[in-house]
Amino acid sequence: MVRLTVDLIAKNSNVKPRKEETIAQCLKKITHINFSDKNIDAIEDLSLCKNLSVLYLYDNRISQVNNLNYATNLTHLYLQNNCIPCIENLRSLKKLEKLYLGGNYIAVIEGLEGLEELRELHVESQKLPLGEKLLFDPRTLRSLAKSLSILNISNNNIDDIRDLEMLENLNHLIAVDNQLLYVKDAI
């Protein structure tokens, strides 16, 4: 089991404290963390990384998104190609602008209420049970209605996108490889 911890970050990144600095002080300044394809299966307490704005954790084995409530400055979160079954524990990420969750096991787009800065949502190619399609919670769609401008829902067996009508500022919808029959009047 590989857990993303502040110790792991300190050991495996370019974190080099100056002579008068402690590791903790140095970690507070980090804005970007890239631990993609490192067999990470859990996110531990990273609260020392107060200024973190971009977190790359794609191509890992993460099954639950947690311990990110400290990351109030996070603007970009890359979690594609993990083992995540549901979207949860992201509501404190008020500055989040881009969320990448493609290639997981998510069946319902939910739990994004309150993310008023979210402009991009990528949920393509979910590993759904045979015959299932990606669904959208109406509360989440209402919450994203004014902010979301890019949505990637490709390859999710979706047959109807009329629910997306409420996304007022959506100007780029990527919905290839679905089961859509009538798109003309959908949005």
Automatic annotation (TrEMBL):
UniProt keyword terms in alphabetical order: Leucine-rich repeat, Repeat
Gene3D superfamilies from the xrefs? Ribonuclease Inhibitor
Enumerate the PROSITE patterns for this protein. LRR (PS51450)
Q: Which PANTHER family does the annotation name?
A: LEUCINE-RICH REPEAT AND IQ DOMAIN-CONTAINING PROTEIN 1-RELATED, LEUCINE-RICH REPEAT-CONTAINING PROTEIN 9
Would you tell me the protein name for this molecule?
Protein phosphatase 1 regulatory subunit 42 isoform X2
Q: Name the source organism.
A: Octodon degus (Degu)
Please spell out the taxonomic lineage of the organism that makes this protein.
Eukaryota, Metazoa, Chordata, Craniata, Vertebrata
